[in-house]
C-alpha cells in the first residue's frame, strides 16, 4: 500500500482515491435542478459557489498546504448568514453491498478579523444521495445526511446531527423536480454526538480530521460513522427516505457542504477522499 | 500527465444593478498558468451610458484586492459574450465593476483555467 493510501482503511476494492494534487477528481459545483431558465433554481442552490483547488493561503503566514502535497479541495460560501455551498461527486453503483467513504477534512471562516472566530462557521456536513436499481421492487431514494453543527448565534455547539425529515419537493416540469434537502431545518441530534474537534488557536491555522462512513447499499442504511478517535453509535440515526425518483437509478452521489452563521465566508477543505467497496 | 484544464462558473444568473460596486466571488487559481474570463448576458442589459468595463483584480489572500490593470467590456445585449485572457495573476482572481444608477445586467461569468 502506498503512503497516500496507508492513512485509510479501505474495503477490498478501491473505487476512487481522490488526491487533489491531481486536480478536482470529479468533485463539481452543486447545480440545482432547472428547466427553461436558471431562474427556476431554488434559492438554496442558486447561492452555491464553485469549489477550488487551494493551498489554503493566509494573509499572516502564507499557504497552509494539505496533509501532503500542495493542493486541497476548498468549498466556500457567500458572505451572508446562512449561506451554504457544496461539492458533489456523482457515481452509480454496481453491487448493492458495503461501501466505505473515508476523508480528511477541516473548516474555518474567512480570516477577515484578527480574532478566533470559532463560532462563525455554522456547520460542516456530508451526505449521500442514493437510489436503488431500476429492477428493485419498491425502489427508494435514500439520502443519509450528517452535519457537524459547529455554532449557532455565537454559541459553540459542536455536535453531530442527522436529518430524516424530507423537505417539500417542487415540481419544475413533468420531468424535473427539486428539493432543498440540505436546508437548515429538520435536523436532529445524533444521540451521543457531541464532539469537540481541534480548531486551533487563531483564525488561520487548521488541523485535519479523519472521517469515515460505512454504507450498506443492500439495505440503503448507514452502518458506521467515525470521526478521529470517536466511533459514533448510529443506532439512533435515520436516513432521509422517499419513493424512487424517475431518473436516478443506482445513483451513488457523495456531497460535502459548509454553512456560515454570520456575514462572513465559511469554507471547508477536503484533502483526499477514498471510496471503497467489497 | 496531461495538462490541467478546468472551467469554473463563478457567477451564475446574478443581476448586477447600479448604483454600486459588484464583484465576482474570490477564486483561488494559483495552480493555473493562464485564465480566460467569459461574461454572457442572460437577460437584456440596461446601459444608460453604454456598456461598462469590469476590472480584473488580484489578491495574495482572497481578502485584500488590487486592480491588475486589465479591463473587460461587459456585454451590450442579451446573449452576447465577451472574454478576456489573463496571465501572471498570482493566487487569486476576481472581477469588479462599478455601475451607475439605472445600469443593470444579469450575468453568467465563467473562468477557464489551464496549467
Task: Set out the fold topology.
The complex is a heterodimer of chains A (278) and B (115).
Chain A: H1 3-6, E1 13-18, E2 28-29, H2 43-46, E3 52-54, E4 57-58, E5 62-63, E6 72-76, E7 84-92, E8 98-109, E9 121-131, E10 140-143, E11 145-149, E12 159-163, E13 170-171, E14 177-178, E15 187-194, E16 209-216, E17 221-227, E18 230-232, E19 240-243, E20 251-260, E21 266-277
Antiparallel strand pairs in A: 1-21, 2-7, 3-6, 4-5, 6-21, 7-20, 8-16, 8-21, 9-10, 9-11, 9-20, 10-19, 11-12, 12-15, 13-14, 16-17, 17-18
Chain B: E1 5-17, E2 20-23, E3 27-28, E4 34-41, E5 53-59, E6 66-73, E7 81-87, E8 92-99, E9 104-114
Antiparallel strand pairs in B: 1-9, 2-8, 3-8, 4-7, 4-9, 5-6, 5-8
Can you give a write-up of this model?
Chain A is mainly beta. Chain A has one domain (3-277): Jelly Rolls. In chain A, 3% of the residues lie in helices and 44% in strands. In chain A, a hairpin with a 4-residue loop joins strand 16 and strand 17 (221-227). The two termini of chain A are 17 Å apart. The model of chain A has no long low-confidence stretch (mean pLDDT 95). Chain B has one domain (5-114): Jelly Rolls (Sandwich). Chain B contains no helices and nine strands. In chain B, the strands form two sheets. In chain B, strands 2, 3, 5, 6 and 8 form a five-stranded antiparallel sheet that branches.
Give a nutshell description of this structure.
The complex is a heterodimer of chains A (278) and B (115). Chain A is mainly β and 278 residues long.
E-strand count of chain B:
9
Number of domains of chain A: 1
Please state the structural category of chain A. mainly beta
CATH architecture of chain A: Sandwich
What is the CATH topology assignment of chain A?
Answer: Jelly Rolls
The oligomeric state is heterodimer
Helix content of chain A: under 10%
Regions of chain B with pLDDT < 50 over 5+ consecutive residues?
none
CATH class of chain B: Mainly Beta
Average pLDDT number of chain B? 97
Please indicate the percent range of residues of chain A in DSSP E strands (runs of 2 or more).
35-45%
Radius of gyration of chain A: 18 Å
Enter the CATH topology name of chain B: Jelly Rolls
Number of helices of chain B: 0
